[in-house]
Request: fold
Amino acid sequence: MDQKTLEYYQQNSDEICKRYNSVSTEKFLGKYFKNIFPEKNKEKYRILDYGCGSGRDVLYLINQGYDAYGYDISSEMILSSKKINPILKDRLFDSISSLKESEKYNSVICSAVLQHVTDSEILEVLKTIKYFLKENGNLVISYPVIYANLDNENRDDKGRLQIIRNSEFYISKLVSLGFTHEKEWFDKDSMNREGISWQTSLFTL
Ligand SMILES: C[S@@+](CC[C@H](N)C(=O)[O-])C[C@H]1O[C@@H](n2cnc3c(N)ncnc32)[C@H](O)[C@@H]1O
Reply:
């Protein structure tokens, strides 16, 4: 992963988690979850939030009755998330290998993560996400399609890499891995930042 981006999350995790937790899941992806995840046997429906940040969406899904878990590459984000919400203690992981020891998932969500992944690493990350899905599973990805005021290295004011890729990019990569593209939605920024908008795409395996 891009080191400068990782450093930002590692060094500011407490403050970032509080900021992310101040936004309701309902305001963004929660609107779509209702159409994607089943209403019955929720407790047996396994969801992985890949790049879960503060664990906000994992907590929301657990409270909705789903068997939800989160993974994040930033160990400090995971520590801060668990400190703020101890109920997430056994639900969040910063290690891919320990995650690989458990059963696979019916759904993976990956929200506001892939724009941080470099061109040389994106295919590997998408393959890893696919690895975690059961047969007939689905994948929800959200990514910025407009991000104003980036510098000439595509970094934002916090130094994070924000690579803007359109849906065709993700569709072609995921279709080549065996996914089918189902739907997409557009949203303004849930933190009300000017000049940022998001696309969410649903894929099935
Ligand atoms: C903008 S935050 C989004 C957090 C959360 N998904 C949300 O919607 O609030 C991006 C998160 O992705 C994580 N991340 C970035 N690259 C990653 C990767 N390759 N694998 C796992 N997590 C990653 C970061 O550590 C950070 O917590």
Notes: The first strand starts at residue 46 and ends at 50. The pocket of S-adenosylmethionine is lined by residues 1, 9, 20, 51-53, 56, 72-74, 77, 111-113, 116-117, 125 (CB under 6 Å). The mean pLDDT is 97. The first helix runs from residue 3 to 11.
